[in-house]
Design brief:
By secondary structure, the protein is an alpha/beta fold. The chain has one domain (2-106): 2-Layer Sandwich (Transcription Regulator spoIIAA). Helices cover 38% and strands 28% of the residues. β2 (12-20), α1 and β3 form a beta-alpha-beta unit. The longest helix has 16 residues, at 55-70. The mean pLDDT is 97.
């Protein structure tokens, strides 16, 4: 899995590519934690390139959300595919991690 990163003055966009699963989820969570420790507490995870997510991937997103919120920030998700949306709905995590259609939409209000 690749993890692309883009920065603007108000937020960081992380864009994992491929599968967000048991193998790749720890790297995503670790990067979110590093960003938060470094003071970047507004993070958008662009899921447009994620073709599959499992419980480990969801755990990484929720763990990152918790870290960011404890530091006064937030993690938002953008551009999830149908499989990711379905998993979010089935687990009711779409209430906590509301999916946004685009990175721009996810970053509104920051």
């Amino acid at each position: 899995m690749e993890l692309e990163e883009r920065r603007s003055r108000k937020l960081v966009v992380l864009a994992p590519q491929g599968k967000l699963n048991l193998v790749s989820a720890p790297a995503v969570k670790a990067r979110v934690d590093e960003l938060v420790r470094g003071g970047d507490v507004r993070i958008v995870v662009d899921l447009g390139g994620v073709e599959f997510i499992d419980s480990s991937g969801l755990g990484a997103l929720i763990g990152g959300l918790k870290s960011a919120r404890q530091a006064g920030g937030d993690v938002r998700i953008a551009a999830p595919g149908e499989q990711v949306k379905a998993v979010l709905r089935l687990t009711n995590l779409d209430r906590i991690l509301a999916p946004h259609d685009t990175v721009e939409e996810a970053s509104r209000g920051w």
